[in-house]
Amino acid sequence: MNRILVVEDEELIRTMVEINLESQKFKVRSCESAEDMMEILEEETFDVILLDIFLPGMNGDEALREIRKKSIQTPVIMVTAKSNLQTKLDSFEHGADDYISKPFDVQELQARVKALIRRHKPEITAKN
Ligand code: CA
User: Fold this and answer.
1) Whole-number pLDDT of residue 89
2) From ligand 1's centre to the CA of 55, what distance in Å?
3) How far is the CA of 9 from the centre of ligand 1 (A)?
C-alpha cells in the first residue's frame, strides 16, 4: 500500500485530501506543520509527500530544502494558493517533483500522486 504524508495547516483541506486519498487505497498520515513533518520523517518513510508552501513556522519551501539536505529523496508535490511562476520555479529548484495550485480538483491531485508513484517505483525496483 502506498503511503502519503500530507502537510497542511488548513484543517478543511487536510481532511478533504485525507478522505479522498484514503478512498483511493492510499495509507495517509497528516500533520499541520513542517516541524511536525521533520519529526515524522525521522521515523517513517513515504511514497509521496504533499507539502503546503504557506505554513505557520517553517514554510514548505524551507522544509523542502531541509529534507533534500538530509538526503531524503521522497517525491514531493508542493501545494500553494498562489499560482505564481517564480514560486513554482523556486520549488523545482529546491527539489520539488510536482506542483499543484489551490483550489485544486481532488481528481487532479489523485492523478498527480499516482503518476508520481508510477514514475518513481520502477527506479526503486531497478536499484534493488
Ligand atoms: Ca497553508
Assistant:
1) 86
2) 5
3) 5
CA of 16 to the centre of ligand 1 (A): 14
Q: What is the pLDDT of residues 8-67, one digit of tens each?
A: 999 999 999 999 999 999 999 999 999 999 999 999 999 999 999 999 999 999 999 999
Give how far Cα 106 sits from Cα of 35, 67, 75, 113, Å. 26, 26, 19, 10
Q: How far, in Å, from the CA of 12 to the mean position of ligand 1?
A: 11
Q: Any idea which residue has 531497478 for its cell?
A: 126
Distance of CA 54 from the midpoint of ligand 1 (Å): 4
Is residue 39 within 8 A of residue 83, CB to CB? The reply is: no
Q: What was the pLDDT predicted at 121?
A: 78
The rounded Å distance from CA 62 to ligand 1 centre is 14
Rg of the chain on CA atoms, in Å: 14
Q: Which residue segments constitute the domains of the chain, with CATH numbers given?
A: 3-121 (3.40.50.2300)
